[in-house]
Write a structure and sequence with these properties.
Blueprint (H helix, E strand, L loop, with lengths): L1 H19 L8 E6 L7 H11 L2 E6 L3 H10 L8 E6 L3 H6 L3 E2 L22 E13 H6 L20 E4 L5 H14 L4 H10 L3 E3 L2 H8 L12 E5 L2 H9 L8 E18 L5 H11 L2 H11 L2 E2 L8 H6 L11 H19 L2
Parallel strand pairs: 1-2, 1-3, 6-7, 6-8
Antiparallel strand pairs: 3-9, 4-9, 5-8, 5-9, 5-10
Helix pairs in contact: 7-13
Length: about 350
């Protein structure tokens, strides 16, 4: 394992060196290192080029956890200029890894203060969403069963074998849902809750794609047979949007009391070859143009105040007035232990 880790580190360092080594055109481009779920529309990407004279290149390196681990391995000799994809549940890990430098964009004053969690300004909030239980409305209608309304419901015999969740060790939605149960049941009760879920035949997958797109019965085109899944409050409008139809209601619903707030951040990478371009990209990520693009590109919500939401969001994304939350410092101090305890409770 140590040899493998050393080889990975060497490869990443070489890649970072190649990125920054004497390229005459590096000042004309900016490289965003991010996860595979990052998306930006072509018109908005073109707007960035027009406004800054810079070419935006994306380096997508797996899911959020994998992308962060790779960025930490190359701290100081990065593969790009900006990192996007740290969330509030991994914030302390990114800050402790010394991979970022401070930058306070002027547009931060337009961001709702509840999303600005880093007083050092190494991580700047870009979007937010809520990780929640989703359910397949048609399945529950066909089986004459009321959909779950609370976390407690999932332990009842009526919901046996209906739930699929993601592993918090490998999935950021899975981590957020584990944290939701800790926020709700407390340090002394959350493991007992998961023992109930295990006894009630929950299914665990490594990531969101398998859980939602393959195992969840409510996803378009899915052959899954589990009508309850850990996903997002914005999944119902996504189902409507991608259906290509005019629907009176979304085919999936959300258990509002289960939702946990997730905030995504971006920061300038220490050692970036184009630090000026990196700062311009951070500015652009908070601009009204990019923030308005966030909902239909990544199906999350903008953090900038006053940005209008598309109609499919205003109509089909349920409001989550009181999401479950834990302080980032508390998460950072306990996250690894909680994941170990979850693993021993649910998987062993």
């Amino acid at each position: 394992m140590k040899i493998a880790a050393t080889l990975i580190a060497a490869v990443c360092m070489l890649a970072g060196a190649a990125y920054g080594a004497g390229s005459p055109s590096h000042s004309k481009r900016v490289v965003l290192v991010t996860h595979d779920s990052f998306a930006i529309s072509k018109p908005v990407r073109a707007a960035f080029a027009r406004q800054t004279g810079l070419e935006l290149r994306l380096l997508q390196t797996g899911d959020a956890g994998a992308a962060l681990n790779r960025a930490l391995l190359t701290a100081g000799k990065p593969e790009g200029d900006v990192f996007f994809g740290v969330d509030n549940n991994l914030l302390t890990r990114a800050l402790a890894g010394n991979m970022l430098v401070p930058y306070r964009p002027a547009a931060l004053s337009a961001v709702d203060r509840r999303y600005d969690l880093d007083a050092t300004h190494r991580l700047i909030p870009v979007d937010h969403g809520e990780v929640c239980l989703n359910y397949d409305k048609a399945w529950f209608t066909e089986h004459a069963l009321a959909p779950p309304r609370s976390l407690d419901d999932l332990g009842r015999s009526a919901y046996r074998g209906l739930l699929v969740v993601e592993n918090p060790a490998t999935s950021t939605p899975g981590l957020a849902f584990m944290l939701a149960t800790i926020a709700h049941y407390g340090e002394n009760g959350w493991r007992a809750y998961w023992r109930k879920l295990r006894a009630n035949k929950l299914l665990v997958t490594d990531g969101w794609e398998e859980a939602y797109e393959q195992r969840f019965s409510g996803a378009a085109g899915s052959k899954g047979n589990r009508p309850i899944v850990v996903s997002y409050a914005s999944s119902p409008p996504a189902e409507v949007f991608f259906s290509g139809k005019k629907l009176a209601q979304a085919p999936t619903g959300v258990v509002l009391s289960s939702c946990f707030r997730q905030i995504e951040f971006a920061g300038v990478l220490r050692g970036a070859s184009n630090p000026d371009g990196a700062r311009k990209l951070i500015d652009f990520l908070l601009s009204p143009r990019f923030q308005a693009d966030v909902p239909l590109s990544m199906f999350v919500f903008p953090v900038r105040r006053g940005v209008p939401l598309p109609a499919v969001f205003t109509q089909f994304a349920p409001a989550v007035p009181h999401p479950l939350e834990l302080p980032a410092r508390t998460i950072g101090a306990n996250r690894d232990r909680w994941i170990r305890e979850w693993t021993s409770t649910v998987l062993r």
